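Async update (no meeting this week)

Hi team, since we skipped the sync, here's where things stand on the single-chain job. The sequence we agreed to prioritize is pasted below, unchanged from the tracker. I ran it this morning and attached the output directly underneath so nobody has to dig for it. Comments welcome in thread, and please keep replies under the output.
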Amino acid sequence: MALTWLRVEQFRCFETVELELDPRFNLFVGANASGKTSLLEALFFLGRGRSFRTRRLETLIRQGQKEFLIVGRAGTGQGGTTTLGLRGSRDGTELRVAGRAAQGAAELAEHFPPQVIDPEVHKLLEEGPGRRRRFLDWGVFHVEPTFLTTWQRYHKALRQRNAALKQALPDADVRLWDLELSTSGEALSQQRASYLQELMPALRRVGQALLGADVTLVYHRGWPDEAGLAASLERDLDRDRRYRATQHGPHRADVVVRVEGHAAKDRVSRGQQKLLAAGLTLAQLEIQERDRPGRSALLLDDPAAELDAANLERLLACIRVLPVQLIVTSLNPQVHGLPEQGRRFHVEHGRIAADA
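Output:
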C-alpha cells in the first residue's frame, strides 16, 4: 500500500529529512536545484533499489559523508505497516525489509513499487532497447509470479555461455548451456508477449486520451521469427564466436511503439514523445494496480516541463483516475488538475517543511 513515512539521511543535498506522507496526494514545491527531484530519486531508490538518474552510487552520497540511508514505512493493506530500508556506500547497497536482509530489490518492490514520470521520460522512446526491456520486465514482474525465477535462470545461463565464448572454449563447452538458455529464454519471451497483450487495451485507451491516436506495441523477441531459440543458437555459433557473446535471445529483444501504424520516434515531436512515454507508464500502472489497488506510487517530476497547457491537462486527467499514491514536484504551488486534498511541502536548499 502507500508509503506513509519517509526518512532520508546524507542523500544528495539532504542531511536529514523526515516526512509523514499522505496516502493519496503529496505536492513538493520549490525552486530549481532546491532538492525536489532528489527527493523523488530517494523514493524511487527505496522501491527499486536503484536511482533513475545515475548508476554511480558515490554521486548520491552527500559531500563529506561515507554513506546514505533511506527508510520508509509502507502500509500492508491490513492495517499494519512494513518497514523498508537501504544503506548505500561506495561499496554497494544493503537492502532490508521488516528488519531483515532482503534477497534483492524485488522484495522492496513487492511492498512499494514506484513509477516515475520526469522531464527525461521521452528517453523510453529515444534511447536503445535496453531501457524498453527494463520497462517491459518491470511490468511482467507484477503480473507473472514465475517471471523473476525465469529471468534469473536465463541470465545465469547467458553469463555462463558468454564466459565460454570469451575464453574460446570448445563448441561442446559453449553448447552445454544451450538447452537451459533456450528453455528459459523461450519461457521469458512468452511471458513478455503475454504481458504486452494485457497492456495493449489500457495503452490504446491512454493513447486516445492523450494523443487522439491509435498507439500499439510490436514485440521483437531477439531472434529470427522463423526459428526457435535453440535452432538459432546452434546455427549461429560461429557468429557468436566472432563477437565473443551470444547474439540471439531475450537479452536482444525490443519493443517498438507505433502511432497510427508508424514508429513513434520517427513521427511525433519531443513534446508528444514525452506524452506518449508518460502514457506507457500510466497504462503499465493500470495493469500493475489491477489486482492490488493503492499499492503503487507515481512520482511526477515537474509535470509542466515541456508540455503546453492543453497536453498537461490531458495528462493530469489520466493520472487523476489511477488509484495510486501521487508524489508530485512543481515550481508552482498551484497545479490545476491534481487533487485538492493531501499534503503540501516546501523545499529549499535541501530542507523540507510541511505547509500548515
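Quick observations from my side:
Residues 29 and 346 are 5 Å apart (CA to CA).
Residues 119-294 form a domain with the Glutathione S-transferase Yfyf (Class Pi); Chain A, domain 2 fold (CATH 1.20.1050.90).
Reply here if anything looks off.
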